[in-house]
Amino acid sequence: MKLERKFYLRDGLTVARELIGKKIITNLPEGLTSGIIIETEAYMGTVDAASHAYRGKTERTKIFYGAGGFVYVYLIYGMYLCTNVIANVENVPEAVLIRALEPVDGVELMKSRRNKNNLRDLCSGPGKLSQSLGITKNFYGADLCGEEIFIETAENLKVEATKRINIDYAGEAANYFWRFVAAGNKFLSVK
DNA sequence: ACCGTGATGTTCT
DNA sequence: GAACATCACGGTG
Predict the structure, then answer these.
(1) Most exposed: A68, A121, A168, A176, by fewest CB within 10 Å?
(2) Which nucleotide is the nearest neighbour of A52, by CA and C1'?
(3) Tell me: the pLDDT tens digits for A91-122?
(4) What is the pLDDT of residues A59-68, one digit of tens each?
(5) Which residues make Cβ contacts (< 8 Å) with residue A167, sequence separation at least 6?
């Protein structure tokens, strides 16, 4: 079952936790690819020094201020794209970074997009999974209640909370347990 | 296995 | 001009 708008209109921590075990799908001209979400991080807007929305609304962060259930993608380190799901209602700038998937459908297409053969190298990190799913900068603002990219209910997995990854610049916020993982899954970004 | 480093472009100071 | 929600590769053990 495809998740509806109301799933995304809740607070970012709830959305991040509940996305674990769901299935994210892209359906593009080259084919359909999907994976079970096993790692997420919540970015909680104005109270979170690690969030891109921490310093308010800009051209880049304006999507945070719309309703939940839309896609935020951005370029990181000049080479890789990270895929986020906007959470909460209008004017509450929260988002969930998708950090890792367990590959399910379209594995051959993922391999060719990534130029890798090992299953573990396909979706075990935010840049990797964006590439496997065929996500580009054009996905900025895409509607998760549409047909190109969407999320479905799938599995019920045991969830653990940990500190977020690679946000040492964020001071005290780096200590919050706002990363959620499917306990013990071998496709996580850090093993 | 674990480092160290280089690639690359957008955003914000 | 620095910093950046990363990854791949080559070195060493």
Answers:
(1) A168
(2) C5
(3) 999 999 999 999 999 999 999 999 999 999 99
(4) 999 999 999 9
(5) A50, A173, A174
